[in-house]
Automatic annotation (TrEMBL):
CDD domains xrefs: PBP2_Bug_TTT
Protein name in UniProt: Tripartite tricarboxylate transporter substrate binding protein
Source taxonomy: Bacteria, Pseudomonadati, Pseudomonadota, Alphaproteobacteria, Hyphomicrobiales
Domain of life: Bacteria
Family: Belongs to the UPF0065 (bug) family.
Length: 326
């Protein structure tokens, strides 16, 4: 064999070896523990969505799936952390519908944009619950009509909590306030859980949050819910009217939770991750956790989820622009 042909053969073998190594590396995912970033404190909607899915993934994949509650800036800190992470499938994000609103809020305030939505790849939607309007059980209001009448009589006197400016809880409450012509005092928190705690304690007077963060407190008699931001009544709260039923036709808000990854992951990793989450959402142990918390599973695979995010985000960004600087 001529030297030239021999060297060419070696080159071909090297290429095959490198290709084989790449395929093997991709097929080996996960090769280390997985971090699932939740951009809010423990106990909120994103955290409720993340934990049973992470438990299932850990069992199936054979690597630890560690929940990283990285709260701050209404969720922007955790979202941007994952947007900048290596696209190797070892850093994931379980986030909420504020995902698209937060970059818009940076633009509204003239700040550097922390991340863009297109830096993240939708993997699957897990939950899609409407927010519920809650007040302390000791509050004088038994209906939305009573609340609106009092808020109009005392502009700026009634305070409400949120997970931060332009987060899910803030946008939903401002959507209602704009529709009803109310002026309330906004008190931002680092997430839903501390806001719920202060609502129970009476430090704030109202809150819009997910059923899963409110149901145990409603059942315990410490909170009262007055309205549902969804288009239809919920099975877990069958007697709770929707805002649309109450005459607020433009008030509709869903606090969905979904799994994302940094854009640019290898196709085999994406496929395995999608398959794993799909199977997790079929697992009775996972769905039982959600249903016990008052959250009905609302699974969508990546393609349908991407379309859903685009449509929902368009509506929420328009609301954010109406809110303006706060």
């Amino acid at each position: 064999m001529k030297r030239r042909d021999f060297l060419a053969g070696l080159g071909g073998l090297s290429t095959l070896a490198l290709t084989g190594q790449t395929v093997q590396a991709q097929e080996a995912w996960p090769s280390k523990n997985i971090s699932m970033v939740v951009p809010f404190p423990a106990g909120g909607q994103a955290d409720i969505a993340a934990r049973p899915v992470a438990t299932y993934m850990q069992k199936v994949l054979g690597k630890a799936v560690i929940i990283d509650n990285r709260s701050g800036a209404g969720g922007s800190l955790g979202n941007s952390t994952v947007a900048r992470a290596a696209p190797d499938g070892h850093t994931l994000l379980m986030t909420l519908s504020s995902l698209a609103v937060l970059p818009e809020s940076d633009r509204i305030y003239g700040r550097p944009v922390a991340y863009e939505v297109d830096q993240l790849q939708p993997i699957a939607r897990v939950l899609a619950d409407p927010t519920l309007f809650a007040v302390p059980a000791s509050a004088p209001w038994k209906t939305i009509q009573e609340f609106v009448a009092d808020a109009k009589a005392r502009p700026g006197a009634i305070s409400y909590g949120s997970s931060g400016p332009f987060g899910t809880l803030h946008v939903s409450m401002e959507m209602f306030a704009l529709s009803a012509g109310l002026k309330m005092l906004h008190v931002p928190y680092r997430g839903a859980a501390p806001a719920v705690s202060d609502l129970i304690g009476g430090q704030i007077q109202a809150l819009a949050s997910a059923p899963g963060t409110l149901k145990q407190h409603v059942d315990a008699g410490t909170l009262r819910v007055l309205a549902n931001f969804g288009a239809e009544r919920l099975a877990a709260f069958p007697d709770l009217p929707t805002f649309k039923e109450l005459g607020y036709s433009d008030v509709e808000f869903y606090i969905w939770a979904g799994l994302f990854a940094p854009k640019g992951m290898p196709a085999p990793v994406v496929t395995k991750l999608r398959d794993t989450v799909r199977d997790a959402m079929k697992d009775p142990e996972v769905t039982k956790v959600f249903e016990a918390a008052g959250n009905m599973p609302a699974y969508q695979d990546s393609e349908d989820f991407a379309k859903f995010v685009a449509k929902d985000s368009e509506r929420l960004v328009a609301t954010a622009k109406k809110i303006g600087k706060v």
